[in-house]
Amino acid sequence: MTATLVTTPYGKLQGTEEEGVKVWRGVPFAAPPVGKLRFRAPQPPQPWDSVREAFSFGPVSHQPVSTSSTRFGGLSPEYSEDCLYLNVWSPAEAGESLPVMVWIHGGTFVTGAGSQPMFDGARMARNGNVVLVTVNYRLGPFGFLHLSPFGGDFASNAGLLDQIAALEWVQGNIAAFGGDPQRVTVFGESAGSMSIAALLAMPAASGLFAGAIMESGAAQSLPPQQAQEIAAALLAELGLTPGSDPQLLDHLPAEQIMEAAARMTYKLSGEALSMFFQPVVEPATLPADPAEAVAGGAARGIPLLIGTNLHEGNLFFREERPGESFGQSLKSLELLMGIDDLAELADGYPKSWEGQAEFLTDLFFWGSSIAFAESQSAAAPVWMYRFDWTVEGHPLLEKAVHGAEILYVFGNLHLLKQYGLSVTPEMQRLSEVMQKTWTAFAHHGNPSIANLEWPQYRRDSRATLIFDRETRVVQDPDADKRRRLFSAQANWPKVFSAGASDSRG
Length: 505
Known about the structure:
The protein is built from 14 helices and 14 strands.
């Protein structure tokens, strides 16, 4: 049985016990990335002598201040470069070494934190008998500015390196918290899921986890030239010319860098969908595009659970929200995905906000996830899901929008009150099924549970578990649409072509 006082190689940590779960918050897994460590690879944390209280969440990475009451529960967290902290939940009565689930949050690589209330790990740890870890990583320009070409010891993909540092901390420390370092599953949503796609391709992450769950996001990366142009644009916004000493970046106020990033983003894209800060393909950290690497067997032997929500795009395109025209939106999506011309495929969609939402769902989320699943299915077992649950008449959740599954996975349904909803028995049952399958995957490398056999995803059957009022397996859902997605363009990037060779059957 794990005590709330644990000893790590860095010092003693005092946690708390809350409703049958032991919790340690704000645990440093790397040194503060400030000063000479800004824009550099993370370094180990400094040891401490006295007992360190792990009662409160650490600061979160610099990001646009949240105007939503849902992201941080109406509270205003501390925003800081000193943000490399993680949180651990462990069942109080655990009598054995338990599987570990490490959550990587989403937020388009510019927002979010492991301390968001929707990611509270207590219910999942207790109900699923797992040790649950949530992590922070550097975001926006601090985590995803492609600076390695500028010389010195600048790192690119610093945010991904932070995630690897957290996973290395898990390997070296989690046994003291009741976890088994040989049974680590990474799971994440949106940018967190895209991060996992990158981790599956990164040599430095090899051996740090045994399974992966990817929710609503597949391989996504920038080519080096485009990423270098973005970095140069931000440096110019900061007044740094090509001849300037890049070491000046060490001394600029963090707020000045954030303001410059916001100006640059608006100048380059306005209000359009864009991701200027994201993983970049570069030799030292991510030597190949994640989709190509996985298609080549980089993640051989790592079981994968992957899926999307039925109406992902309806979070971004809604009737009451002014936005781009269909043509402008199409150009934004072409830029985002690195595809030259989507006009032919787009002809099958209404030229309206509903059409924009559906096209984004099908192409950016669903299609890329199918391609990724196909690639990995040649190297390891893969399971595919789709989240279809909706709430009739609700202004947002009448669609299964991007991120809607998270509260059900974590079992934090009480937070639905923020959306004006009360928890129904149907919602509770759905959450229990999702949580049981996710944690079964962590325990056994297979998400099947009692009374629910979940077949593997294979190209000849494409079994997909639909989470809805009736949880059921469907073979090749929306087959005609899938065929059209994969046959429309011969010049699509590797994110699709890697998995498209047999996709038309």
